[in-house]
Amino acid sequence: MKKITVIGAGNVGATAVQRMAELEMGDLVMLDIVEGIPQGKALDLMQSAPLMEYDSHIRGTNDYNDITGSDVVVITAGVPRKPGMDRKDLLKINSNIIKDVCTNITEYAPDAVVIVVTNPLDPMTYLASRVLDMPDNRVFGMGGMLDSTRFATFVAMELGCSVKDISAMVIGSHDNLMLPLPQYTTVSGIPITELMDEDTIQELVDRTINGGAEIVKYFKNGSAFYAPAASITHMVESVIRDSKRIMPATAYLKGEYGYDGVYAGVPAKIGREGVEDIIDLKLSDKQKELLTKSVVNIQSSIELLELE
Ligand SMILES: NC(=O)c1ccc[n+]([C@@H]2O[C@H](COP(=O)([O-])OP(=O)(O)OC[C@H]3O[C@@H](n4cnc5c(N)ncnc54)[C@H](O)[C@@H]3O)[C@@H](O)[C@H]2O)c1
Ligand SMILES: O=C(O)C[C@H](O)C(=O)O
């Protein structure tokens, strides 16, 4: 059995653990700073196993000793935004949490592949990679995966077709400057540019960009977690099964798309080693311009990080 740890037993973390247990992806450890919460949620999930028929063991803990030997560690620890806030408003508070969590991962699970989920996603992934002191390919973020599943959902709603035939691609930052790519978003191989007019596509693009805020507005006191947990599960599965699936990931760029030394969302091959390859897509001039804005925005957040 593989060992998967999720740090943060809140909405996203606990839902991801539930999804991964139900798929029997491995034995799971759920760690949180609050005493009792991970233990109680883990026990509750274990008591679902006879009915849902999974043999994954789930341990809830506050002790980093329990993450030793993890193959994958997912970081969901952190504060979610409330209506009226940007993800960027969480930079300071969540930086401190990422530093604490990553210092412990370095000590207790130095061989794991680490997937960052905490917002603001792109600078938090950069920060995690600096604290973790691991090869850059073993640290990446989940953001574009969620944005792409949202885009796919809206395309299916618009066309009245099955979501199963849709493959969507969103790159760039996981914020208002993300870049949904219609020419690489297909229905059974047919680009949506062949199936809808420009105005309709733009409406779906705008809804995707505002997808997180749309949910925050409903909840009032937190953010999305079902689709984020599904996105985490999809990425972790590709690592633990070494499936080498290609999906959007917040990866460390070393010249790809013309950028160096920054984390941003790009299509990547995900396997046992983490990010095993990055696909350099051909973009239109307008898309290149928008990607630059997105990356410059990530860089400006990185500059605000207090790195030793
Ligand atoms: N990247 C994405 O696509 C994406 C999607 C959804 C949510 N998020 C982000 O994920 C984070 C978590 O969201 P949520 O809805 O689960 O929030 P939540 O408040 O439900 O859960 C967060 C958990 O983190 C724990 N925590 C805080 N500090 C900790 C520490 N130092 N060590 C261990 N645990 C700690 C809290 O006790 C809490 O249980 C937020 O920052 C949110 O913005 C990102
Ligand atoms: O919107 C948020 O703050 C949470 C997450 O990044 C999302 O896109 O749902």
Short summary of the structure?
Substrate binds at residues 81, 87, 119, 150. It contains 10 helices and 14 strands. By secondary structure, the protein is an alpha/beta fold.
Task: Tell me the layout of helices and strands.
Blueprint (H helix, E strand, L loop, with lengths): L2 E5 L3 H12 L4 E5 L5 H10 L2 H4 L5 E4 L10 E4 L15 H18 L4 E4 L4 H12 L6 E3 L2 H16 L6 E2 L2 E2 L7 E2 L5 E2 L2 E2 L6 H12 L1 H9 L6 H15 L4 E10 L5 E12 L2 E5 L6 H20 L4
Parallel strand pairs: 1-2, 1-4, 2-3, 4-5, 5-6
Antiparallel strand pairs: 7-10, 8-9, 10-11, 12-13, 13-14
Helix pairs in contact: 1-9, 4-5, 5-10, 6-7, 6-9
(2S)-2-hydroxybutanedioic acid (LMR) binds next to α8.
